[in-house]
Write a structure and sequence with these properties.
With 132 residues, this protein is an all-alpha fold. The chain folds into two domains: 33 residues, no CATH class; 98 residues. It is 77% helix and 0% strand. The protein contains six helices and no strands. The longest helix has 33 residues. The radius of gyration is 22 Å and the shape is elongated. The relative contact order is 0.11. The C terminus is likely disordered.
């Protein structure tokens, strides 16, 4: 009996519930760690068509190629390799009509490409400081 009461108490604390009523928006405890903006982006990306996903993928691949041309492999080797693998995975998902998976991974690819770009920007600043 005491174990059940403890379990109910722990569940209520972890869920963010302070009353019997449903918790307010963003008041769901550990279940709502990701910001709502991220979910909106995923929903928007999932509703795109195959041709739109392919166009977005080509844009990201072109950006990745430009970054590789300016020494992305030197300053962000692991991220560059992971981005290339993810790009191939997205192509397979689109070919297999797994559009929602492709859209989700496309968002991750954008994040990786942005991270590589930021890494290269910092590296250029640091290289410029060493040369002067």
């Amino acid at each position: 009996m005491i174990a059940r009461i403890v379990m109910i108490g722990v569940t209520a604390v972890l869920s963010g519930c302070v009353s019997i009523a449903w918790p307010p928006f963003n008041g769901g405890g550990l279940a709502e760690i990701a910001p709502p903006e991220r979910h909106r982006i995923v929903i928007t990306a999932v509703s795109t068509s195959e041709s739109e996903l392919l166009r977005q993928l080509q844009d990201e691949e072109a950006m990745l190629e430009r970054l590789i041309a300016i020494e992305a492999r030197r300053y962000a080797a692991a991220e560059t390799t992971l981005a290339e693998r993810l790009s191939k995975r997205i192509r397979r998902e689109i070919a297999g009509t797994l559009y929602s998976d492709a859209a989700r991974n496309l968002i991750e690819l954008r994040d990786r490409v942005d991270m590589i770009d930021r890494t290269l920007s910092r590296a250029r600043i640091n290289v410029g400081r060493r040369q002067t």
